[in-house]
Amino acid sequence: MFAAAPGVGKSTLALALALVISKWKRVIWFLLVISPDKHSHEYIGLYSIIEDIDNNFAEERFGSKKGAIFKPVTRDPFAYRGEDWGRYESTYDPKTDLSEKEIRRIIDFAKLVTNASDTEFAAKLGDYLDLDEFARFMAVTAWLPTLDSILGPGHNYFVYLHAKTHKFQFLPWDLDHSFGQFGMMGGQSQSENLSIHRPWRGESRFMERVFQVGAFKKLYLSRFDEFSKTIFQPERVHRLVDEIAAAIRPAVRQEPTPRLARFERLVGDALSDPRAPVDFLIGPGGEADPRFLGGGGSGH
Predict the structure, then answer these.
(1) For the chain, how many helices (H) and strands (E)?
(2) Is 297 within a domain?
(3) Which end of the chain is more exposed for a tag (fewer CB within 10 A), N or C?
(4) How many Cα atoms are found within 13 Å in the side-chain-facing hemisphere of 37?
(5) Domain range spanning residue 112?
(6) Domain count, the chain
(7) Element (H or E) spanning 125, and its range?
(8) Is residue 216 part of a domain?
(9) What is the pLDDT along the chain (300 residues), one digit of tens a residue?
């Protein structure tokens, strides 16, 4: 995946925060693009390159190229569409060759999500979905928050079907609209008003049903609380901002003057905006905002 300035720093920060909670560690490179013209050597732009998700990637993380990788695009994942795989293929966009068992696993899970009673769904969900990995994925996605994702249009994530456990895992992708910076879904103000108990926009039977399962909800809120005290601590976030800013500042200096000024304003201590891009996660005393955590509050 490529991300161009000014989204480079934001997407890198979001990935650095998101990937620390998962087995799916990825390499991020910064790429300074210069014109090949030997006379001009004109600066073209700063890009980030994110390690691709394929079976080679799976082999490095899990020791095997086996297992299936999908990149779905749908607001309602795992909706049952009958027994014909052709009705699912374009939606799930498989990145690996699929066996009949892997195809069957998708269809069977879709049937469970769509048709099972609440009791059956709660009892069998953990047979198909890696609950802890999905709790981690959803907690960090809601924390960022990034609505250009499974929380909104229903894209920018991968699904891995583990070769040994035969359970589905979710992992993030393309986080350049994190921290509420996705205007198509209302921007930061809309993100701040979402509830952690229902962090997505619109209707999704899959999300509605999963969040009603007590075993998952307990894991999700536990991970949310854990991350608020660890990876999303203000000092850690600001340290990452400083590290990323130092790495890309020489390239940003070659950008147009207004872009450089905005960059320095956003990463500096003195911000002209009333709230920094990450401050809506932080309480007035510098602590993680308790309004976002589970318990008696609304979770908004």
Answers:
(1) 11, 6
(2) no
(3) C
(4) 7
(5) 2-292
(6) 1
(7) helix 118-128
(8) yes
(9) 444 444 555 555 555 555 555 555 555 555 656 556 655 667 777 777 777 788 888 887 777 788 999 999 998 899 999 999 999 999 999 999 999 999 999 999 999 999 999 999 999 999 999 999 999 989 888 887 777 778 877 768 889 999 999 999 998 876 665 565 544 444 455 545 678 899 888 889 999 999 999 999 999 999 989 988 888 788 887 787 788 788 778 877 877 777 777 777 777 643 334 344 444 444 444 444 544 444 444 555
